Amino acid sequence: MDMQTPAFSVSEFVAVLNQTLEYAYPNVVISGEIANFRVSKNRWVYFDLKDEGATVKFFGTIYQLPGPLEDGMVVAVRGMPRLHPLYGFSVTAQTIQPVGEGSIKKAAKLLEAKLAAEGLFDAERKRPLPYPPTRIGLVASTESAAYRDFVKVIGARWGGLQISVIDVQVQGDVSPAQVASAIQQFNQMATPPEVLVVTRGGGSAEDLQAFSTEQVTRAVAASRIPTIVAIGHEVDISLAELAADQRASTPSNAAELLVPDRKAILERLAMHRGHLLRFMERAAHDARSELKVQRENLHDSALQVTDQAKRQLALRKQLLAAYNPQAALTRGYALLRKGGAYVRSGNDVQAGDQLDITLTDANLTTTVKQITMRES
């Protein structure tokens, strides 16, 4: 045997080769088309990646899956190349990311169908957002234009809000875990925000892929805090947006949906104030006119009552005058009294009685000599 050629036992060769791979290629990213994809015992994942010239075996767990995968999809897999003592060479997958517009859309459609079947996108799950909120939780990249647009628009429209931000990467392998963790952190706060905003700007389908992963979509759906998600431009719709309580077409639109426009509110208040002042002026004018009419009616009623009272008084005066005994005396009548009592009938006196006679201008005393009764 050539002394310059290394010689190993099988086990030694596997160990040395793995050490060499670990030193030279501790992590690699391999892109290719999925073949022979299968899941074992609802935990282990096995598949091949292939291109026109080769096939490489991969092994992993379901926790590395971005969502449902199927043969024919093109993915980029980050993993560790290893030679197994019994099963041969394979790459242990750490992350799996669909690449290429066709594969990304296919992965999203598969995941969307799965999550829709679980009811994560149902309208009945949607909660109303507080309007306007006083405390906002924001999940975004603080270096992004989306972050700056949201903060600028919401400050210009309303202001005075408490905005707490958790800075995350919004694309790449680490993005889904960071976004999901940020959502969980806000939910675990002793005093959580009233609404949670998850946002990033536009980009390619691959750039926005993190927000259509199962990890982020489930985190949005599980949030106890009402959520609004604005990813990309108006034409971009991620699965996280479908799971959110409300979707915004852009980061600026999210700000517009959360708070009113202070300038427009002030203008409406000024308009309402003008309407109210004009209404009050009309009401005061109408009240004054009504008061004048009522005063005139009251005056007329008082005159009528006074005239009626005067007529009643005149009638009573006439009646009193008619019943006044003195008036009867002036007409030739006299009053007869016997011992202080008025004499009303011949039966009240006897011959020889002394009577007092009252005339209109004198009092007489006389004695009855004869009584002659008339037939009635």
Blueprint (SSEs and pairs):
Blueprint: H1 10-24, E1 28-40, E2 44-50, E3 55-61, E4 74-84, E5 88-98, H2 101-117, E6 135-140, H3 145-157, E7 162-167, H4 175-187, E8 195-200, H5 214-222, E9 227-231, H6 239-243, E10 246-247, H7 251-258, H8 262-323, H9 325-330, E11 335-338, E12 341-342, E13 354-358, E14 363-367
Parallel strand pairs: 3-5, 6-7, 6-8, 8-9, 9-10
Antiparallel strand pairs: 1-2, 1-4, 2-3, 4-5, 11-12, 11-13, 13-14
Model description:
The structure is a single chain. With 376 residues, the protein is an alpha/beta fold. Helix content is 39%, strand content 24%. It contains nine helices and 14 strands. It has helices spanning 10-24, 101-117, 145-157, 175-187, 214-222, 239-243, 251-258, 262-323, 325-330, and strands at residues 28-40, 44-50, 55-61, 74-84, 88-98, 135-140, 162-167, 195-200, 227-231, 246-247, 335-338, 341-342, 354-358, 363-367. A five-stranded mixed beta barrel has the order 1-2-3-5-4. A five-stranded parallel β-sheet has the order 7-6-8-9-10, sandwiched between helices. A four-stranded antiparallel β-sheet has the order 12-11-13-14, with no helix packed on it. Helix 3 (145-157) packs parallel to helix 7 (251-258) and helix 4 packs parallel to helix 5 (214-222). The longest helix has 62 residues, at 262-323. The model has no long low-confidence stretch (mean pLDDT 88).
